[in-house]
Amino acid sequence: xxxxxxxxxxxxxxxxxxxxxGNGNFIHALLENLKSFDEIxxxxxxxxxxxxxxxxxxxxxxxxxxxxxxxxxxxxxxxxTVCISNSxxxxxxxxxxxxxxxxxxxxxxxxxxxxxxxxxxAETQMTHVLMHHWWAAVDTAMGIVHKETYTRQQILDxxxxxxLTGILVDDSGDLNEDPKNPETVKFLADRLDEYLQRxxxxxxxxxxxxxxxxxxxxxxxxxxxSATSLLAIGEKP
Length: 237
Known about the structure:
single chain, 7 strands, about 240 residues, alpha/beta
């Protein structure tokens, strides 16, 4: 059986919807891997990604639309492919978002979920997981919806509950890069410092500050690799 990654490479995706698109990071992966597509629309409640879309996808049939994923304006069965990447844990209420994604997906259309998970990770990958959980705690203190990452099984359960057929799953992680690459360490240290500035005056500031400093030391001592992600692709009956 072909892996989900190979299936993505062979997919004639037609009209594509990328939910909670942010800056369009997953769309870059789609452009790299999809066999073909007609149009990609990225939606998000924030306008922050709009400007980067214009620059990053200039000349391509890719566009940004500001829209609530739980209450989409699209017609039923209006997309051939729908996807959501590393955003399950950003949803205040996930069920209506997934229901809307299924509603706008055509029968026999493809539903794609990509999400990092927190368990079964190497020690260097746990640096990423722990950093992400700290970022989530900081965002939560700021009133931003940001939950900790799911376990692999929790993601599988979410995908399994969608009623899709022919589900393929692929786990992707790369441990080949130097975990203590100076450029990576500096980049992460800068990101941590940026978040340390944000916590001033927030509830639980002292504990958040201590966690941030510990993570800064961990990046230098243990190193960093991106956490393994799960990619699942299934078809709507």
